[in-house]
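Is it possible to get an amino acid sequence alongside its tokenized fold?
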Amino acid sequence: MDRYAAVGRTLRGAAPHELPQAARKALTEHFTATQVELLMADYAMTILQPVPALPYTTERIPVHASAPGRAFGAQEPYVESGGAGGTGGLGGGSGAVVIHLPVTVRGDRLGVLSVTLPPETYSPQALRELVLIAEALGHEIVVAERDTDLYVQARRVERLTLAAEMQWQLLPGRSCSRREYDLGGHLEPAYAVFGDNFDWSTSADHLTLTISNGMGQGISAALLTNLTVHALRNARRAGLGLADQACLADQAVYGQYRGAAHVSALLLRFDLATGAVRVIDAGSPKVWRLRSGKVEQITGLEAQLPLGMFEDSLYTEQPFQVLPGDRLLFVSDGVYDVASPAGERYSERELARALTSTRLLPPAEVPRAVLGELAGHRGETRAEDDATVVCLDWHGRP
């Protein structure tokens, strides 16, 4: 493991914008790699893009029809032997071994590290070390993003609207994993999202999850959602309970807009030890559950006022319980209100079918798959609203 430690030291000592070059140099020196490329997943999670080519990217690699995409989707190393091509220029010549490694940080999928080795230097031990190096590279990228735009730029196949820029910067990530749960979320349209958002925070004993939908479009919706999310975070970080978090955010929004704008929100706090959940349903986001193969919408929640609609609204927490093996799906009205070209709404039946058809996918892939089916229902019709899907698999504690 000495060479793994040596590569790690090189990555930690590299300038934020030079991580790809540092990885390439270190892997060439210690693993005799002949080619190294860092690919980042775009905001829509459909494309992998080489980082060093930015801001003018070279060939884009599809996630769902490529060798690097297999590693990204399965979150497992994928090894090509014999110099197979078709991976965006990564073929290493006759006999070369191309290893595609997921770059993931605590469940949040960033991209893929592709490394080409001569066949005589490839071994199971080398593969194990490279898996750890890809994970270490992911951690360094997360830290480096504080100081450079390089990796944020690499996620874009087109320019984001200003509203989308504001919304994406609010997100905690696109997926998260702990032994008690796996969590994934996605927004669409990825490059022009308006007021939809999701947020989560975990501690030793609890997971807090919120799904919000600010009214309006464009910058006005993004500003409204930014105010709401930061108010909720401010209250949560002050140690307030879920009801007080909702009250503080309600006061913040009403104080700014005087009832002219409001935010629909769903707030949940999970006890990691017991699966007991406290819920506040303050608007339109809906909850579906897949338990033992049966899909059902959670309908027993009391509908409370959206945040900011009236002055000094009071909010009440309701109890809810999740069991090991449960899958929860949270969707905004941009999902279930979508109309087909013939005017048919995306019905509850279709949403239940989508949840069933994606039951074998990990939570990080479910939101994108559901939104893909939604796009098929919509056809060529332009989306009238943005849409949010968040998926949670509950494992609980032994």
Summary: The chain has two domains: 3-81+93-155, 162-394.
